[in-house]
């Protein structure tokens, strides 16, 4: 397939359309505005619906309603806007609805900065809303990965009847790269996907139709719903962990990062090797479920230190790294936040300092 040159936000929107998304509701916020702008132009071309909600709260509840009809539906926002989604996303998790949404992260907390950051990791992986629900959370380091993840997110959401989040940042959202776009679902395929969800959709049913009502509602015990959800979350450990491991066979220090920081750290590893420092890398591609085994399986007789690279102060992913490492080697941090970008030079300087301390 031919490659095209696209901005990250627009590529994400196009990937969703090609995956069969036919409803989008959202509210403007930098740096993700190109996603709803693109949908506003593209949806009429595929007989889809675009709605600019009057707020983030309105938008996520429109998303709830649209996906209840069996329509592949999506929304997007950025950091502070995503906080306003939390109640609606929790409703969707409780009702086991397959929504897809995108967070193009910015600096914080509060209104913060409109520049890129990775300060929503804990929100995305540990506390996206009340009730202790979990989601698969994918985090791209290239525009191509953003396209592929968005396209697949709809299948994952419908497989599990559960929300899926694509967590990216303002660098990925605004940069331009060549990408190969996935195939476009035909009108017949889109109709067939919607029909396949008819038995769990609120579209009106005849008395004799077989209808399976998904969990959710007020009153009575929610514990059986929680037990079923917990079994779903456990299943992800075996089938949905996604991680890139780089030059770990002889690594003495290991860099670890996700998303845009992972892209930067990957270049740093190659240059550190050229300097004679045996560096390796672990890049979580799905940050939930987290690839704990990649850290647990390191040879700590050889690996003397880990460098956590994040655009977040204080560090957030380091909690999961520490949980996996169990104190078997020191974990140092290389951090930026609030819209200040990570650089290769900063990563290399921190890695050299770590190497001097532990080797």
UniProtKB/TrEMBL annotation:
Keywords recorded for this protein, A-Z: Oxidoreductase
Annotated protein name in UniProt? 3-methyl-2-oxobutanoate dehydrogenase subunit VorB
The record, for CDD domains, names: TPP_PYR_PFOR_IOR-alpha_like
Q: Which residues form the Pyruvate:ferredoxin oxidoreductase core domain?
A: 251-346
**Higher taxonomy:** Bacteria, Bacillati, Bacillota, Clostridia, Peptostreptococcales
The GO terms describing molecular function are:
oxidoreductase activity
Entry-linked InterPro entries = 2-oxoacid_oxidoreductase, PFOR_II, Pyrv_Fd/Flavodoxin_OxRdtase_N, THDP-binding, Transketo_C/PFOR_II
Looking at the keywords, is Transmembrane helix present? no
Keyword flag Cell membrane: no
| Location of the Pyruvate flavodoxin/ferredoxin oxidoreductase pyrimidine binding domain | 14-209
